[in-house]
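REQUEST ID: PR-0412
SUBMITTED BY: lab tech R.K.
PRIORITY: routine
TASK: structure prediction, single protein chain
INPUT:
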Amino acid sequence: MRLELPSLGAVLDVALATAKRFPLTLAAAFLAATSAILTFEDIGPDALHDRLLAAATLGLPLLTALTLFGERFAQRLGVRALVWLVGIAALASVYLAWPGWSDELRFARYAQLTVAFHLSAAFLPFVGRDRPNAFWQYNRTLFVRALAAGASSATLWAGLALALAAVHTLFSVDVPEQGYFRLWAVMAFVVTTWFFLGGVPRDLEALEEQRDYPAALRVFAQYTLVPLVAVYLVILTLYLGKVVVTWDWPSGWIGWLVSGVATAGVLALLLVHPIAGQPDQKWVRTFARDFWVAMLPAVVMLWLALYQRIHQYGVTEPRYFLLALSVWLFAVAAYYALTRSGRIRAIPASLCVVALLTFAGPWGAYAVSARSQFGRLRGLLERDGVLVGGRLQRPANPVPTDDLGEISAAVRYLVRTHGVSRLAPLVGDSLVHRVGGGRGETQVRIVVQALGVEYVRSWGGEGRDSYFSFASGVRGALPAAGYDVLLHVRAPADTTAGADELIAVLVPASRTVRLARGRETLLVLPLDSMLARVRRLRATATSGADLPATVMSVQAENARVAAVLYVESVNGRFERTGMKIVGVRGVVLVRER
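STATUS: complete
OUTPUT:
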């Protein structure tokens, strides 16, 4: 069999036809490459860089989807023009709104729209068309074409970059360093997009009769992805059994696991869809039938974990998205488990609707999260007597240390994510005007102090995976008058000692240092008081900063022994039950009576 490569003329004809078919998408690709170069080389006003790049890259999937949708109205130019105007207006709205979004919200909103626009390209051409096989073949073609476009462009860039380096080295031709990035930008946005669009099917009706299934795709889906998803579903089911038996709350990272398994499982279902109904594919048919049923208890477990986090710390954008996705996943799983439907078009269509519905409005992720954190802040202030009858006042009793951290954390989230203006109902418009549009730690401190409570600098955070580390400023001689022995604090495992040897051992579970001789405990030095002082100093100290020796020391005595512990460093993490000490380094001065 002879392999015939297309002629250069044929390639140019395809490229020209693609440009005529997708003019707006390719215009967005050129704009994306240009804005990427301007951003990288810091050319032009700063306000132009990120927002132009964001709008242009969002235009790639959106304008492609709208072009494909508009092709259904080939004879009605007005309708096609209206469809394109809708897309351009959406991108212009992103460009105009971009400066008003915080850095945190920019990433979230951009990711949300990226998902929605890519999903729209998957199903919009089939709105009103009942062509299940054509739908699968179309998306399979897009998937394979995207992989081929990315691989081809990456290879081409690497080859051309190496050629530039060779010309520079061998012929002493000046090649500016920026040239490599410019080449990458053109390849990544223009060449990749043009190559991909050249393979987008035009005759969607003809795809309904197409039955080919790439062998590589089949092997990957049937023998790699499906077994892996099945293994993780078994793990999730067993973990749910453990939760039910022990009644221990699900681990905080269960959300990532469930989300990952759901994503891989849905992808596997979509990839094996054409063979799921074949009689000789019992394993695939069983997976397609039982996957959705197996996901239902996993979603319930995810809700338990989310309830715990939201109940403790309120709603934030990541928790909102995880909750929205879990509700969508439960609804889709229930639908397919009950109906046994084989129509897969509802998966990308419904997820796209969820992404767009949660983007804006009072029910959206950003408005709900802001209200939740503002309400949480009000609740803390009212509970501690700082806010009474809607008015700020000096509390009758000191605000607990933990609440000080929670208040500062809530203010920090609102200031950084939604701006100081969101706190105007508490601190007044005059303070908002004085603080301005800044979203840094200075603005957080000003707002917290305006509330009449002690400002606490962020040095850990909420939840299980928040770590802390502090050290003492003492590096030289220590006052030893009145003490007889100096001991170094040992790790818990290093407890081997002779019967008459005096040792000082850290006990992490009780947050204490045990002074013992052999097996006999002589004195216990609790570390809680020291940790409380450290937490009080968070307003002026950051994690890893040196603290005064008076803060990092502990004294204790009884009828037999008096001792003082000088802590050189302490580290650990926050858990639901409180602070857990992982390690302590220091010395203990001991006097026996």
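NOTES: Confidence is low (pLDDT under 50) at residues 460-465, 539-544.
REVIEWED BY: pending
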